[in-house]
Write a structure and sequence with these properties.
By secondary structure, the protein is an alpha/beta fold. Strands 3, 4, 5, 6, 7, 14 and 15 form a 7-stranded mixed sheet that branches. The radius of gyration is 20 Å and the shape is globular.
Amino acid sequence: MKAVLSQSVGGPETLKLEDLPDPTAGAGQVVLDVKACGVNYPDVLIIQDMYQFKPQRPFAPGGEVSGVVSGVGEGVSHLKVGDRVLASTGWGGMAEKLQVDAARVVPIPDTMPFDEAAAFLMTYGTSYYGLKDRGHIKPGETLLVLGAAGGVGLAAVELGKAMGAKVIAAASSQEKVDLAISRGADSGVVYPTGPFDKDGQKALAQLFKDACGPNGWDVAYDAVGGDYAEAVIRASGWNGRFLVIGFPAGIPKVPLNLTLLKSCDIVGVFWGAAVARDPKGHAQNVKELMALYADGKIKPHVSETFPLAKAGDAIAHLASRKAMGKVVVVTE
């Protein structure tokens, strides 16, 4: 089989397409013929040794895949050869075949295309865990989403709307805001590109305050970080919940006096670790997400696909922050 491998620390240009032996399924495992692999921001970080997990090299990036079961190991009873599935893998997905623990594999309906299935679990899983389990969002509350046209951001927009919130989409261009509005956001705001000086920070905070109104936001979903975080917190309503999702603009430094003045919470959202710690809760969330998909309330927006040989280009495109929705690598 062919796989795209990280053999040394570096950016997407260091990835190489190599031949590897086909994997076999051990006890409790299955082998998938990979059809598609979703590209996510952790793929940008993991090949640079900047992610929370640092797999032993060589490894293939790619934390979520879809495909067909081609091998079943001892003790696996809920899957069989030929099943159409998606899987959360952490890494290893940018390959033609993949050995994975059966517990990480979820059957998908025949009506779900492989590219959508590969773009589904990490973004919707992260956003649903964040909004439901960490943000405790309620119908009628105001949700501000930063990076609203990215993978997790667009998922948060759709889920927030499905959960009854008033959704304000914030993004770096009108095109991105328009996409988020087309997926359910009630309104949007275009923010400028940082970094910001003191006056720029004040102007940015006012921009978010004007977008949210006098009562501020109840839940903020920050998939951007950097200088934007403090400005967003300044627009918080009373008892707001600020969800920490990611840092493509850099890791922010927030004056904690703001949390006192606003009586707001800063809440970490580490979906990958939560899945391992609470597999039953994760399984229930996946069940609920599949029901939302079946009802047409959520649907991955796959904006671009790349062949396996161009997986490095796919990661570079995501890292440029120009991508909207999900970028997917396909094997055929």
